[in-house]
Specification:
Chain A: Keywords: 2Fe-2S, 4Fe-4S, FAD, Flavoprotein, Heme, Iron, Iron-sulfur, Metal-binding, Nitrate assimilation, Oxidoreductase. The complex is a heterodimer of chains A (816) and B (112). Chain A is of the alpha/beta class. Chain A contains 28 helices and 42 strands. In chain A, helix 11 packs across helix 13 and helix 24 crosses helix 25. In chain B, 7% of the residues lie in helices and 42% in strands. In chain B, the strands form three sheets. Chain B has a four-stranded antiparallel β-sheet with strand order 2-3-4-9, with no helix packed on it. Classes of the chains: A alpha/beta (816), B mainly beta (112). Strand 42 of chain A pairs parallel with strand 2 of chain B, so a sheet runs across the interface.
């Protein structure tokens, strides 16, 4: 049976609570919301950009009308709740709507504090709280006259900057000696005042308002010293107080705010409160991060998790005024037990101050260059002992351990639990993990899945750097790189859509994905063909006309149009009869060059295309099959002689290499795949620069991957150590299948690994036995259709047309 | 100009869709291409860039991409498409009831 959940208030906190609740307990509640404001849930933090004109209202809507409809939520817009009847369990709005509830959530937010001076209710006096206030300010700003903002805190300065941007002549009156004194020390407050004044905003500190003067309409503000500052608009931004009136009237315990326990429960067990109206642990909150934490806890309780508890944490303060960068966090008051490190760069307008106690960061003020805020926050949170890096600490993360690094390195070096998005409490690991896990490629996707940078947006740059870091060069902040000019879709989009839409032929794909050309091009067709071969091994008929010539005729084209042929020599092992057969073929077809390859094979070069089937026929009689030296697929498994012969060998590396090769030959991969197995760490098979390598040790088999020794040179990453050959094979096969399913066509395994992250690959292949098994089984299934020797097929007559001319003409005339 | 001497080279069914076959002549190979729309074209099988066999390339639209260095040629005009400059000789070809003919006199005059 669905329970009735009624929510009073429709701000960001209850909005977030509903998102959590709908996820955790969909369908459990019939939800009704009463919103005193006549609109949907919007991002209140972004009112300042709306005021300054940098954003429009539509851009800051969090839940549009459609969202409420989709979730079957009844939203009463412009209904203020005037009474809660706890006995009857109903609420009643000022329009006379009475609604019963099983659970009630009070989220009435806060009311702006209005200073108790004469004239404070005059026309032209506004507060700065909601969209109505912003609209009223925008109307007043059309006069381009004088405005006064009372309050030099976060909100006041944002209001002042917004009004100034709208063309008003603005003066800020602040009662304290420096601006934002609760978040900034005097030095930073001074720099801030300079910056604000440089924008043309006048600042008066120690300005104590005595009265607001005017005849029916505001004409100015009179200060305690007797000065009258003229203005036609006065905005009061001196603070907020929790809006607890309705709860107080209903007999619920209140103090400064509505008193709730760590689970957001009020003194009435059926009623919860959250947001700015709630008081938890004796504190009320105004910044979004703790409010979202309350939302998470409240949702958990409504979903039945009684254990969820609100925990206090410091929240950094950031000013959302374009061009002014400041960041403050924690405790930065002076004290005998504290030390500080200060950096000033007057020319660059930079001020940084770290407050330390017992070699640990307890407070941070950054002005002008706030890039290291997250790092300092992380040091503070983890209580890291900074004595080792004390000399260079203030210069920031990039200066630790050597020369300055690029900005990406700083982000790369952040720990996984470092907080990136302060508003939503999202840490780095959550962002990178979600990007990898869900295959996210755009900023919007990341915002949708993680909420990172979805509120105030000040961490957008960091999130984008994380995307670049996780996705590699393939992440283009502007847009996804299209596969080719035939489409706007990137490789990942295409791969996802093949599965999502169940697309099983190239023409079907081109139709459904709105290809811009009739039949693709030489770039996209081989990629599409590979994706279909990989995703539907049993159903898709390989389109040979979409394969590059080498894969179409199973030999390597050379610069003169002849071909080279490499028979498979399992693990690089051969014998006299095989060598004799090769020698005979070389003689018979007058093959001009025989060469030993880097992958321990014998290559015969300069064979005419017409001769290929006959060459293969002779090789086949000696037991040879195709060596796939031409394939975007498994090429060679190189081995050393291992424990059978070598006095240092620890395992049968030759045997394992042959076993792997026999198991995996014939499989297509995004790009060529070369492997090696070395019998000991001396590594004679050079396994540590291969796509996949094995180093045998006494205790087992070290699995390596993602090496490169071509255009790029790169040592392998160690995936992990396994005990026996069976396990080694299973891990290698699963790894290959993961790469087959996720790699972009022509993307070597090391590039894929860089994009996806070694840790994620290790998690799926080594740590998650279920995933590993599933990858393994999908590979095995696909091999049923792939392990057909293409050479013997062609010897038997397949694709005859490929190997002989259609006609010979003109020769008779020429001969005569 | 003498009337063209049409020489039979086979049928359209001999060529795979979006594929090509070769015809040997004393002057070298000719590539005969069949597009997805069943148009048939004949061009010299020799890329002006580094001599790659165009008949071995991937056929897309009425164009082919050379297998050696990815130059793209229009099968209709023989001209290189995109940023590259160059062209290959086109050979007159006609289709009658699915049977293919190329014009020999051009070949003969060259052969002489």
């Amino acid at each position: 049976m669905t329970e009735r959940l009624v929510i009073i208030g429709n701000g960001m906190a209850p909005g977030r609570m509903l998102e959590h609740l709908l996820e955790a307990a969909p369908g459990r509640y019939q939800v009704t919301i009463f919103n005193a404001e006549p609109r949907v849930n919007y991002n209140r933090i972004m009112l300042s950009p709306v005021l300054s004109g940098e954003k429009g209202y539509e851009e800051i809507i969090i839940h549009g009308d459609g969202w409420y409809i989709k979730h079957g939520i009844t939203l009463y817009k412009g209904h203020r709740i005037v009474a809660i009847d706890r006995a009857a369990k109903t609420v009643t709005s000022d329009h006379g709507v009475t609604e019963p509830y099983d659970r009630l959530v009070i989220a009435t937010g806060s009311v702006p504090f209005v200073i108790p001076v004469p004239g404070n209710d005059m026309a032209g006096v506004l507060s700065y709280r909601d969209l109505d206030d912003v609209n009223a300010m925008l109307l007043a700003a059309q006069s381009r006259a004088k405005a006064i903002v009372i309050g030099g805190g976060l909100l006041g300065l944002e209001a002042a900057a917004g009004l100034q941007a709208r063309g008003m002549d603005v003066t800020v009156l602040h009662v304290m000696p420096t601006l934002m004194e609760r978040q900034l020390d005097p030095a930073a407050g001074y720099l801030l005042q300079k910056a604000v004044e440089a924008r043309g905003i006048k600042v008066m500190t120690k300005a104590n308002t005595k009265a607001i003067v005017g005849k029916g309409r505001v004409e100015g503000v009179e200060l305690a010293c007797g000065t009258i500052v003229p203005a036609t608009l006065v905005v009061m931004a001196v603070g907020i107080r929790p809006n607890a009136a309705i709860a107080r009237d209903a007999g619920i315990e209140t103090n400064r705010g509505i008193v709730v326990d760590q689970g957001m429960r009020t003194s009435d067990p059926d009623i919860l409160a959250l947001g700015e109206c709630a008081e938890v642990g004796g504190q009320v909150y105004g910044l979004v991060a703790p409010l979202y934490e309350m939302a998470r806890v409240a949702a958990a309780h409504l979903a039945g998790d009684e254990a969820a508890a609100f925990v206090h944490s410091d929240t950094p303060t950031k000013l959302k005024v374009t061009g002014i960068d400041l960041y403050s966090l924690g405790d930065f008051a002076d004290g005998d037990d504290r030390e500080e490190i200060v950096l000033r760069d007057a020319a660059a307008g930079v001020y940084k101050r770290l407050v330390l106690r017992d070699n640990r960061v307890i407070g941070t003020v950054l002005y002008g260059d706030t890039g290291d805020g997250a790092w300092f926050n992380d040091l503070k949170k983890k209580r890291t002992d900074i004595s080792e890096m004390r000399e260079t600490l203030i210069f920031g993360q990039a200066y630790q351990g050597g020369s300055p690094l690029d900005p990406m390195a700083a982000v790369a070096a952040l720990a996984d639990d470092a907080e990136i998005c302060g508003c939503n409490g999202v840490c780095k690991g959550k962002i990178t993990g979600t990007i990898t896990e869900k295959g996210l490629t755009s900023l919007d996707d990341v915002r949708a899945h993680t909420k990172a940078s979805a509120s105030c947006g000040s961490c957008t740059g960091l999130v984008e750097q994380l995307m670049s870091l996780t996705l590699g060069d393939s992440y283009n902040p502007a847009a996804v790189q299209p596969m080719c000019t035939c489409t706007d879709l990137g490789h990942d989009d295409v791969r996802r859509l093949i599965k999502a839409k169940g697309l099983k032929t190239i023409p079907e794909m081109m139709q459904e994905l709105q290809w811009k050309t009739s039949c693709g091009c030489a770039k996209c067709r081989p990629a599409l063909n590979y994706y279909l071969v990989c995703d539907w091994p049993d159903e898709y008929a390989d389109d040979y006309q979409s394969r590059f010539i080498n894969e179409r005729v199973h030999a390597n084209i050379q610069k003169d149009g002849t071909y080279s042929v490499v028979p498979r020599m399992w693990g690089g092992v051969t014998n006299a009869s095989e060598l004799r057969a090769i020698a005979d073929v070389v003689d018979k077809f007058e093959i001009p060059l025989v060469k030993v390859t880097g992958g321990q094979r014998i290559d015969m070069l300069g064979i005419r295309k017409e001769d290929l089937p006959a060459v293969w026929s002779d090789l086949g009689k000696a037991g040879f099959v195709s060596g796939h030296a031409y394939a975007k697929g498994l090429r060679t498994v190189k081995t050393c002689v291992g424990s059978d012969w070598c006095r240092f060998g620890t395992q049968d590396s030759t045997g394992l290499g042959i076993r792997i090769e026999k198991f995996m030959w014939g499989s297509w991969t995004p790009a060529k795949l070369k492997m090696a197995v070395s019998g000991c760490p001396r590594n004679c098979a050079e396994a540590t620069c291969k796509d996949v390598g094995v180093i045998c040790v006494d205790s087992g088999f070290e699995i390596h991957f993602a090496g490169a020794a071509g255009l790029d040179i790169k040592g392998t990453e160690v995936l992990g150590l396994v005990r026996d050959e069976d396990e080694a094979l299973e891990v290698i096969v699963a790894l290959t299948q993961m790469y087959r399913e996720q790699g972009r066509y022509l993307e070597r395994i090391y590039k894929w690994a860089k994009r996806v992250g070694v840790a994620e690959i290790r998690r799926q292949i080594l740590d998650d036995a279920g995933k590993r098994q599933a990858y393994y089984e999908r590979f095995v299934f696909s091999q049923k259709f792939a392990q057909v020797d293409p050479w013997s097929e062609r010897v038997s007559g397949k694709d005859k047309h490929e190997f002989r001319p259609m006609a010979s003409v003109g020769f008779a005339e020429a001969a005569e | 100009m003498s009337e063209m001497d049409w020489i039979a080279i086979g049928t359209i069914a001999d060529i795979p869709l979006r594929g090509a076959r070769c015809v040997d002549t004393p002057q070298g190979k000719i590539g005969v291409f069949r597009t997805a729309e069943d148009q048939v074209f004949a061009i010299e099988d020799h890329c002006p860039h580094r001599g790659g066999p165009l008949s071995q390339g991937i056929v897309h639209g009425a164009a082919v991409t050379c297998p050696l260095h990815n130059w793209v040629f229009s099968l209709e005009t023989g001209k290189a498409l995109g940023a590259d400059e160059g062209s290959v000789r086109t050979i007159p070809l006609k289709v009658e009831d699915g049977r293919l003919f190329i014009a020999l006199d051009l070949l003969a005059s060259k052969a002489a």
